[in-house]
Amino acid sequence: MDPYELPELLNQFALIPHFDDKIAELANLAEPEDWNYHQALSDRPNPILFNYLRYTYTRIGQEKKVAVTKDEKWACWNTGLVTSHQEPIYVLFEENKFDDRQTYWHFNQFCRKGHYFLNKFSALPEMAHYFDDPAQLVFDSRKELRPNIQHIIADNKERFPEPYRSMNDYSLQTFLKGAIDNAIERVKRNYKTAIPQYYKGSIQLLLPLCIGAADKADLALVVDTYADFYRASTCLTLDMAYNNARQLARPDRDWLQP
Question: What count of Cα atoms within 13 Å lies in the side-chain half-sphere of residue 123?
Fold first, then answer.
């Protein structure tokens, strides 16, 4: 097995025994952050951090940002997280020595940048990169937003909270149109209202859908960017939206909270 081979999935790249325990160690090492869902149930602790690490590796693999020592005994990559003292955190792997190994690497530990184990590497890899044009992260209020309201309701009605989930489609459509109009007005006044997420190689923007009250988002509208306009055809629960947005950066807490 080639130590430079970078498969798509983290569990194909390395053996990580007791993964949930390792995720808890990372949560304690990193600067304090809420990594739990607040609406959906999860069968594991720190589900947002669990997904963050897996999807970060996928991007790291695509960009080939894994450092390997000359003797091919150690590897590391940048998690994109920092300690409470703003020191970058890396994940360190050693050669997997199990006879029946299915991966070349075996998890060793999470390390601060100053940890002496990282002196094994002549250069440390950069964190994952997701966009080249910062303008992608900002909603341009001069462009038209074209929502496919019928599709949003038909495909995502189970994501709506009650009592909206139990409404007939026409009544819900009326509420949703108003929430989208309000979201557009809100992002015109505050560009930080639009929160970027990375999805299948592109940047999308998330807007708050406040259906029941002006100060509480019920869902996140997913906005795709076209050359001259925006299009929206789906929505996410707030847990789903935070999970996706956290891949790029910790979202502003104006409306999207875990």
Answer: 5
- Evaluate the omega torsion of the peptide bond into residue 163 and state whether it is cis, within 30 degrees of 0: yes
By the 8 A CB rule, do 14 and 103 touch?
Answer: yes
Q: Are 46 and 36 in contact (CB under 8 A)?
A: yes
Please say if the pLDDT value at position 38 is more than 90.
Answer: no
Alpha carbons 60 and 79: distance in angstroms, whole number: 9
- The three-state (H, E, C) secondary structure of 78-127, written as one string: EEEEECCCCCEEEEEEEECCCCCCCCCEEEEEEEECCCHHHHHCCCCCCC
DSSP state letter for 226: -
Note the pTM of the prediction, 2 decimals.
0.91
How long is the chain? Answer: 258
* β 219-225/202-209 pair status: antiparallel
Cα–Cα–Cα angle for 81, 86, 92, rounded to 5 degrees: 45
79-119 tens-digit pLDDT? 999 999 999 999 999 999 988 788 999 999 999 999 999 99
